[in-house]
UniProtKB/TrEMBL annotation:
PANTHER family: MAGNESIUM TRANSPORTER MGTE. It is a multi-pass membrane protein. This is Magnesium transporter MgtE. Acts as a magnesium transporter. InterPro entries: CBS_dom, CBS_dom_sf, Mg_transptr_MgtE_intracell_dom, MgtE_N_sf, MgtE_transporter, SLC41_membr_dom, SLC41_membr_dom_sf. Pfam families: CBS, MgtE, MgtE_N. The lineage of its organism: Bacteria, Bacillati, Actinomycetota, Actinomycetes, Micrococcales. The chain crosses the membrane at residues 289-306, 312-329, 366-385, 391-413, 425-445. It is found in: Cell membrane; Membrane.
């Protein structure tokens, strides 16, 4: 959305909030009517969930479904719990199976059976089948509604299939080509079909298919879809039979959610289920307090190191002046390495098997950074204080940067190797670890160089 649109939505949110507080539903509806669907979605994200539920009831039925499907799963979950049972049942029945699973993952487990009972037998079977796949697998994010064709079918017969499934299929722009055992043997695009003669065989038009196994990690499959620029990625079961497809818009949605979670956890907070402005204060506190407690406990290591080397500081108090500089530089170096390697893991550029290569690169990178900063620190500290103090600072910067880059680069790989989200090893955690290690290195070098 443009800045002007965002400003308009912000003003509309303030106006509607005042009207709802006055119970002026007609006035709120008048403000809501001219807004586009994206603007209504942004508006819902700015309101409290109670006001959002009232506002949602003011939308026409068709528009309400468009808005609901465009909301984030977290907002959908909160909105469902704020609406009446009859409204929720109607909404749930009109959603696509993959969108239903997104929603159910955000709701309490006790709510799912009640919502599933309101579906037709066919829709219930489709949705329940997807819920049976592992959490975070592509099976829970694919669409089981698709159109297939066969190598021996003609273009005319395939186009008839497409026209018959326009209302139910997730997409018709890329069609999986399957054999009689439902195994994927290729894909054909709608563009190819429209450019061919009616009697042309699909087997002569189809291309090699990229596929994903239903139990594969959703982020990995989504990344492959975007990397190859696919409009749809066929999903197969353990016996290579087609069970669903992942469309490009769903792949982008998965990656957006995963990247938001990674960014939050690298900053030492839990990801928010809703937008910042509509998230209650208690939930903001809950998303941050756990990591703060963990980091506070970790910071006691730094305090313990300072206590251990108290005598060293007492003999040469000038060393205390450089503590913030050294631990800050080490933490920043570790954070840079961790962020770079985490991103490379997400993009598939490195794997845990590349640990030695990554370690080698980070050791050299950290050493070079430390050498540059160390020379600068040596010159400045030597000129301002004494040259042997400058030598301590220079050597410490070289050592701390080397260690910090190595640790920061290794932690995401270690996390992936033990099947933990690399973002869990967040930047604040690395900073705390490097702080304590950097102080030990600093005081050991000072004792060796200064003889204290």
């Amino acid at each position: 959305m443009t800045p002007t649109q965002l400003q308009n939505v912000a003003e509309a949110a303030d106006t509607i909030g005042q009207l709802l507080s006055q119970n002026d539903l007609a006035g709120a509806s008048a403000v809501l009517t001219p807004l586009t669907v994206p603007e209504v979605v942004e508006l819902v994200d700015r309101l409290s969930i109670e006001d959002a539920a009232i506002l949602y009831r003011l939308l026409a039925k068709g528009r309400a479904l468009e808005v609901f499907e465009a909301l984030s799963p977290g907002t959908q979950g909160d909105l469902v719990q704020a609406l009446r049972n009859a409204e929720v049942t109607t909404l749930f029945a009109e959603m696509d199976p993959d969108d239903r699973v997104w929603l159910l993952d955000e709701l309490p487990a006790s709510v799912a059976p009640r919502l599933l009972r309101g579906l037709t037998r066919q829709e219930r079977d489709l949705t329940s089948g997807m819920l049976g796949y592992p959490q975070d697998s592509i099976g829970r994010r694919m669409s089981p509604e698709f159109v297939t064709t066969h190598p021996q079918l003609t273009v005319a017969a395939t186009m008839a299939r497409v026209r018959g499934a326009l209302d139910s299929a997730e997409t018709v722009y890329t069609l999986p080509v399957t054999d009689h055992g439902r195994r994927v043997v290729g894909v054909v695009s709608l563009r190819d079909l429209m450019g061919a003669t009616d009697d042309a065989l699909i087997g002569d038009l189809m291309h090699e298919a990229h596929i994903a196994v239903v139990s594969e990690d959703a982020e990995t499959a989504a990344r492959r879809t975007t990397d190859y620029g696919l409009l749809a990625l066929p999903i197969v079961d353990g016996e290579d039979r087609l069970v669903g497809i992942l469309t490009i818009d769903d792949a982008a949605r998965i990656l957006k959610q995963e990247e938001s979670e990674d960014a939050a956890r690298q900053g030492g907070v839990e990801p928010l289920r809703r937008s910042y402005l509509s998230t209650p204060i208690r939930r903001l506190v809950r998303s941050r307090v756990i990591w703060l407690l963990v980091l506070a406990v970790g910071a006691t290591l730094t305090v313990q190191v300072l206590d251990t080397f108290e005598a060293t500081l007492a003999q040469m108090t000038v060393l205390a002046l450089f503590v913030p500089l050294l631990i800050g530089t080490g933490g920043n170096t570790g954070n840079q390495a961790a962020t770079t390697v985490t991103r490379s893991l997400a993009l598939g550029e490195v794997t845990p098997r590349d640990v030695l290569k990554v370690l080698s690169r980070e050791v050299r990178t950290g050493f070079c950074l430390g050498l540059l900063l160390g020379l600068l620190g040596f010159a400045i500290a030597g000129l301002v204080y004494e040259w042997h103090v400058g030598l301590v600072i220079g050597l410490t910067l070289v050592a701390v940067c080397t260690v910090a880059a190595s640790v920061g680069g290794m932690m995401p790989l270690a996390a992936r190797a033990i099947r933990v989200d690399p973002a869990v090893f967040s930047n604040p955690f690395i900073t705390t670890f490097v702080d304590a290690t950097g102080l030990v290195i600093y005081f050991l070098i000072a004792k060796a160089v200064l003889g204290i």
